[in-house]
Specification:
The structure is a homodimer. By secondary structure, chain A is an alpha+beta fold. Chain A is built from eleven helices and 16 strands. Chain A folds into two domains: 271 residues, L-amino peptidase D-ALA esterase/amidase; 123 residues, Ubiquitin-like (UB roll) (Roll), CATH 3.10.20.
Chain lengths: 407, 407
């Protein structure tokens, strides 16, 4: 299996995708940062999508579910700064108007465009500004503007989240590219952010949908920043077949699924690492649980524990909080023979072994936790279930950002 | 139904209860605050208890479950500063040794004493110090030292949590008293802290157990500080019948249950209000849900949302986060006709009506959120299910306390 990361690659790296972005003023204050992005496959494509499980879902999600059913969508209009959530029927009509304007501007058919929004809840979208933006963006869509689109969709994100892979299948080489936005309101339960994955492979829509769900369960759904599942979470996979290579055989499907896993996990890590106020990426590896479900519960519970997240911020190897979070996760577990270790580029320390505290050096443990990326490993020695979750620490900055988000 | 609060009352207000406390040095640094408390009924009593659902439960909980089965316990030794959790079989033996020493010192029979611990996880209890403390405390047990015991069990709590009621039953007057400790690692799922409720009424053990569970479900299990369910949570109800009044008839049982609800809700509010770093008590009232279960899910989800908690800290009437938290609560709900209001002694503002944002004054909303106690009201107009949850805001101080708890 050959799979290579393409340096600097992103959502327009696969063949036949163009993107663009501009500032239209979704939020009133003037900014250099673009706030509307367009991403488009130049060829007809299949698409798969997953949407938030939040019952208080945003207008673009309501509309997106309808568009997905038609199965023809291959382009996106995405705005940051306003979530178009809690906007009722008016919000759905607003999204629809933007969709129709984008379809017209790009010369696409009905329901070939998804509309996505992220930002503040409860305010009406400035539809006219976004529609006017189409005339600016669409004529300048290019295949080297994926990164500009990745910038435009950011809210409190501090870095762009992009990745691209080149993958060898039996019929030839295909590419997969992606971008995402994360930051706040990030918690497992469908993807909890916006993510766009493009490929120039040809993939049946139903196969794509299944693979996307499976990859999301290992990546986005294992990611938490603050335990809050957003109203707008959406993940999309568009496959336009522009490479001339189809994903058909079982072997190719497995390779493609592995590539999709890699892309989704890359984005999930990037989202957790850039969580609001984060100073640490926490990777939690749980193993030795009776089932995969138990392992996922344990890993997510530890990654989501406010108390342990605050301890990581304080560089305190407070393993009692790790085991406490495992204990209330709902997983079937017996802690009496558990092991627990902390690891980073500074080293690895076993803090608990066979259910008991070891005689570890607190100083060394603190040194390990001084690194940005830290891995927490727990092993319950009672089965083959294993899973990894992605989170970040809880910091003063998280409180500052969210105590003063709208003003 | 006559039920009166007894000013300054606590756990030794009901007849036949004595308490005492002293400093023995559970934690090494010297302090004026007592760290071991003893509470005892002078008469045989029935008892009911609820323990943490955390699978990684502490030694005193393991032992406590055994003691509860015997049904004879009427006294408690409680230490703060060390949770005796993650201490394996040694921890259970340590708790047992303290129990036997306390029973001997008080002249009680086997398994008449519960041992409880709260504090740091993963360190062995200084058993000798606590056993030696028995000789200091037991000879000086008095019926006016309930408040000293309530002080001794505090950890990062900033105020004592005590309450007492006088209740008229058909056979005469009875009293109910209580104390609790809360602060951190506070999240619904059995009581999530330590609480001790005494009464001089006579109550059958099985009746007491049922009433305690019912009251806990309305109070402690509706309380959250940080979403972390502790390893040591325990709530006890001891009934010694010293008033000569028995709770037997259906009518008396209802009055007694209402009094128990009032006591538990008082403690739950006190715990939420004094949550680690809290500057606000958040009371979340959810109504108009299809079932009680749905209403509880919604109320707890809102009270537990990091994003909304940070907004309350920032005095930001960010109702989008309220509705988002309702949306991901798992409750059966339709937000399209929901109302949402914020209330405090400064006034009441409706921020959402019939599913849509109202034209409210942000300035007035901020003024309402400036008060310490704020109530959040949501109504989904789709049933009779209603519930109240108790929480607190997420502050810099929470991060500070928990980024630097052990050092």
């Amino acid at each position: 299996m050959t799979m290579t990361t393409i340096p600097g690659g992103g959502v327009t790296t696969p063949k036949g995708y163009v993107a663009g972005a501009c500032y239209v003023g979704v939020k009133s204050h003037k900014s250099d940062k673009p706030d509307v992005a367009v991403l488009c496959s130049q060829y007809p494509a299949t698409c798969a999508a997953l949407f938030t499980t939040n019952k208080f879902c945003a207008a673009p999600v309501i509309l997106g579910r309808e568009i997905l059913k038609k199965g023809k969508a291959r382009a996106f209009v995405i705005n940051s700064g306003n979530a178009n959530a809690a906007t009722g029927q008016q919000g759905v009509e607003d999204a629809r108007r933007i969709q129709r304007a984008a379809e017209a501007a790009m010369g696409l058919g009905e329901d070939e465009v998804f509309v996505c929004s992220t930002g503040v809840i409860g305010q009406r979208l400035p539809v006219d500004k976004i529609v006017a933006g189409m005339e600016q963006i669409v004529p300048q869509l290019r295949d080297d503007k994926g990164s500009e689109a990745a910038w435009a969709i950011m809210t409190t994100d501090t870095v762009r989240k992009e990745v691209a892979l080149e993958v060898q299948l039996s019929g030839g080489t295909i590419r997969m590219g992606a971008m995402a936005k994360g930051s706040g309101m990030i918690h497992p339960n469908m993807a909890t952010m916006l993510a766009y994955i493009t490929t120039d492979a040809g993939v049946e829509a139903s196969v794509a949908q299944g693979m996307l769900k499976s990859s999301a369960d290992k990546s986005f759904n294992m990611t938490t920043v603050d335990g809050d599942t957003s109203t707008n979470d959406s993940v999309f996979l568009v496959a336009n077949g522009a490479s001339g290579v189809k994903v058909e055989s079982q072997a190719d499907q497995e390779i493609f699924a592995a590539a999709l896993d890699q892309v989704c996990i890359h984005l999930a890590r990037a989202i957790a690492s850039d969580g609001e106020g984060a100073t640490h990426l926490m990777v939690v590896e749980a193993k030795g649980l009776p089932t995969l479900k138990d392992a996922r519960l344990v890993a997510r519970s530890i990654a989501g524990s406010n108390l342990f997240k605050a301890a990581v911020f304080g560089r305190d190897a407070n393993w009692g909080r790790i085991m406490t979070a495992a204990g209330y996760s709902g997983a079937d577990l017996d802690p009496s023979h558990a092991d627990c270790a902390l690891q980073s580029t500074a080293g690895r320390v076993v803090v608990m072994e066979d259910g008991k505290c070891t005689d570890y050096s607190e100083e060394f443990a603190t040194q390990i936790l001084t690194e940005h990326d830290v891995t927490i490993q727990v092993d319950f020695h009672s089965g083959d279930g294993e899973a990894t979750a992605y989170g970040c620490d809880l910091t003063y900055e998280y409180v500052r950002i969210n105590g003063d988000y709208r003003t």
